[in-house]
């Protein structure tokens, strides 16, 4: 029997109508073509699929929760593919495989040579980078910075220095309720000319993506970031010099 | 007068019907809402917009070619926004601002505090990373490797060593006619256990994204990559160990 195929299904980043428009129309048809769904959260995935297509019969799918990655879930996943079933992997938000446990299932699918189809959808990393005006030729996403204050300050200084030396944009995230302390640490531990992009509520109606130098951010009240899903981009590298670049 | 807003319009990566389905439906409505288009290539953008909506009146837009970035084009861009016009920025392929000259216009828009809206679309970087099964918590896109053979081999060894030390996925591209020599250089300059993902023709019907260890790639004929748009991902870091990770 031919192996089943794996479809990586992106979901919205925000729970509003604007965000729903950011998904390509082929996603729901692709899900219809699958028999099995592996998801981080069955309840939100069920609700999301219903929002995309109210005629979809949710109970026709076999459901598995990814949650804790253990050998048993990898075995189940692998068995479903070997039974010839098409499997959808769905994230809690955004793109499966990017900062996400789905990645381990995908690695398993690669091991057994199953065909994998990534579908286009919203990624806060990529959307923020596009809108930042920062270097998109060389960038590094590094997830979360350390929580410990001293370690975090050191990490920020190290990021800035690597960014200057390699002309590289660094991208990182934080748990939303820690955004304000993080941004204060960034502002007080970097050079005035370094550029920081603060990208909040991406794809929502309240989306707000702004790049400023540290000296300009210092003039702003940044408390609006409290509890807003935000991604940060730092670029200490040389800025665009029109005549010399091309 | 209120400043115009900037919309970052992604386009297809491949010129086939399958690829067209990867675009969200709201893109064409967003373009309709703009008065001015800045594009890398006017001819392909005109054709692409017509494909998305044959009723669109192409000549209603004011067209500017990005091409060589000089002060004059930045001035023109800035003037259009100050006239209150909504501006679309369109790449030759993929997402504006990512490995793309549109980035300089976006930086200019950030400088004058224009609102910038990145739209969801296909990025070979992100789609390949999703499907690779590699580390999506820590990754570095670095554009092209050096063309000089000795420098390139050194770069490959350096990438592998950084990937192992930092547990980071490195992502890079090559001009399609140089894919085969590049992949040969990778295979002969990395450890047998290092994983390499070769992602070709992303979003096309012929899409082919496979991750294997270097020792497994050695058994394959890789000449099929000649002149196929391809992106490479290298991960020498520790692989998933179910019990210990969560």
TrEMBL record, chains A, B:
Highest taxon above the source species: Bacteria
Q: Keyword rRNA-binding on this protein?
A: no
Keywords attached to this Swiss-Prot or TrEMBL record, sorted alphabetically, are: Cytoplasm, Methyltransferase, rRNA processing, S-adenosyl-L-methionine, Transferase
Domain Tetrapyrrole methylase positions: 21-215
Q: Does the keyword Lyase apply?
A: no
Q: Name one GO molecular function term.
A: methyltransferase activity
Mind listing the GO biological process terms from this record?
methylation; rRNA processing
Q: What is the protein's name according to its record? A: SAM-dependent methyltransferase
